Amino acid sequence: MHTQTIYELSQEAERLLMLSLEHLRQLQKLPMTSLDDVALKQGEHSSQVVQPLHFSARGMDVQQATLNNELRKITRLEMVLAIVGTMKAGKSTTINAIVGTEVLPNRNRPMTALPTLIRHTPGQKEPVLHFSHVAPIDALMKVLQQRVRECDRQRLTQTLEIDKDMNVLLQHIENGVAFERYYLGAQPIFHCLKSLNDLVRLSKALDVDFPFAAYAAIEHIPVIEVEFVHLAGQASYPGQLTLLDTPGPNEAGQPHLQKMLNEQLARASAVLAVMDYTQLKSISDEEVRQAIMAVGKSVPLYALVNKFDQKDRNSDDEEQVRALISGTLMQGGIAPERIYPVSSMWGYLANRARHELTTRGRLPDHQVQRWVQDFAEAALGRRWRTTDLDDTEHIRHAADLLWEDSLFEQPIQKVIHAAYANASLYALRSASHKLLNYAQSAHEYLEFRAHGLTVAYEKLRLNITHIEDDMQQLEVSQGRVSDEVSHEVELALDAAAVYLNEQQTEILCGINTFFVKENVLMMSQHGLGAGVSSAEMAGEMLVLHDEGQAKIVLDKMRSSCEVVLLAAQESISRDLALRFEQLESTLSRALNDAMRPIEQRVKEELNHAGFRARIRFPAFHAAMFNFNTRQLFNEAIEQDIPAENAPSTGGVVRDTFSRWLNQPNWGWNDYVETKTRYLIDMGALHKNLVHYVTQFCQQIRKALAAQVDISVTAGMATFFADFSLCLTQLQASLRESLTLRQQNESAVNALNEQLQHRITTAAWLYEDSRLLRDDINTLFATEHT
């Protein structure tokens, strides 16, 4: 490790960050009103979350916070790895698996009310939480104390799920018990974080604003310090590794968390997305993908595809999952080799068990610590016994196998160990990218404003009028394109419905052949030998004289039907995936064709006036289309299973097929009457099968229609909001120039001199930042060769 070089680069990064902050303070002194006015007006008329314009007063505050955050990280050479994922993806379990012990509560509900830092601290065996910036929470508790006394408790119970922990929180609020600034141990930390989450829910129910803004700065959020088990005993490196647990977008019904998530990701050194293998194309996972893709190439991206232990023999394997996420879902925004299918739960349980065996020589009492029961079931099977836990060597071996099966070793080595060893370089690279982004955007903004001082007053007014016309045209085009898109979607769904009808017919035709009298009798005799008595058909009843023969006939029938069903399932998967990839391309082309003339006209008009217009044309992503037909297959089936008919522990395909018929295990006794003969009701069997095939295809059609409607609506709203924001920013900058042109000549000249000086400073800030980035990249390449 090049310690001296890293020190020198960190000194240079610190110098440039401080100069950039000073440059930003000088920009804040320049006159600006219309930028904020336009941003606010746009927010009033839009349901979308309006991001602050880059150099409005709010936008500058965001940039200042970003630069200050990088300065804080550089002084400690801290690499912040942000962990992001939806509630059900297993984000907390993944963090626990990385750390090696339970530092975050693992519950099937949103638990991340505030972002939380988890810092690797060598020697800190027991996790400790520091909550130094607790004053805003104390103030909130006092407000809630009065509200709780005044509220109708029965009505509050109807609005809010009040469990044991919520009752304790309510008692603390009534008695004036404040949050502590220090919590030692997993259980106290769990109660603190859960209480914070309950506080968010309670505040919402009582219509009190939770002080999220007070925790926008990363230094104000709670910090857990603990030694990561996987890094214990590792060599010492310059720099520090810290995980950032982020709230999921719209978690717990709190839409503003999306803004908090975006801000936290933008300030991270790298991002690790936790995706749910069973919900890869769901809307919730799409929100996470959009958030991390918005960060751009300045932050390295990694992904863990959790719950891979739920893969069956018909599911996508590791390579297929990597290809799907990298190429389709992330649109090439993440390399396949940075995607790791894992089971976070298995990884957490295995690693915690191994850690307990190493430090204490045995596992804790399973009746006291429930995770031990989860471990035993995962590692030893459902039939484990308490005495099995006493054989430490056997348990250690089972834990090692479970760890191996979790596939967690690879991301630990390639992401966590690498991040720890190169924390200082990640911190430096993050700072260099933020510096470059600031310098480039500041230079563009200042040049645009400086040129506005030289353009004639009437010309500026004309440009503003033209953009206003273009924005009106955008609204007209949006309506027209919406109609076109709706037409394309309708055509696609109609074609899919026709295709599914054809598939249904083919499935039923294929199955019907097995129930033809001649084929049933042939199947009853084939391969059974001469010693077996003959079978006959009495109406729809197959009459047999041997119990074993009856079982064999049903098993053959099941196997034959499975071949047809599995072939149809594969065909449906491939065809629908292709159809809706084509639909997404069609919709993207329709949007681009409609907006391109406006984009080109704006650029041409501004170029004639000498402005260099930078319009970033947004992309339309409908990647949330959920066409995982295997999943739809199972969901359609599960809806019709009575509780008393839950599937048994047979093979996956057999269980799935059995559920089609609402007959667990395809039980031969359900169709066979035991007398002197054995009767199989082939008519009832056939009727059940036809009913469930028909129902399955209906469920597919309904799911497709609902998913496409949600996906296209969300995708189009994002597209037009992004494009409208581009035009709004240009219009706002032109209005700034128009306002300045109305001042007297000496004021204009003075402002122009200031702008030129700031432009020069921004230019050399950019150049020095570029050189810093190049030096850091060279050092990165040296460390990885």
Automatic annotation (TrEMBL):
Occurrences of domain Dynamin-type G (ranges): 75-414
NCBIfam families registered for this protein in UniProt: PRK09866.1 (NF007368)
Name of this chain's protein: Clamp-binding protein CrfC
Taxonomic superkingdom: Bacteria
Lineage summary: Bacteria, Pseudomonadati, Pseudomonadota, Gammaproteobacteria, Enterobacterales
Organism: Citrobacter arsenatis
Gene that this polypeptide is encoded by: crfC
Molecular functions (GO terms): GTP binding; ribosome binding
Matches recorded under InterPro entries: Dynamin_N, G_DYNAMIN_dom, P-loop_NTPase
Entries under Gene3D superfamilies matching the protein: P-loop containing nucleotide triphosphate hydrolases
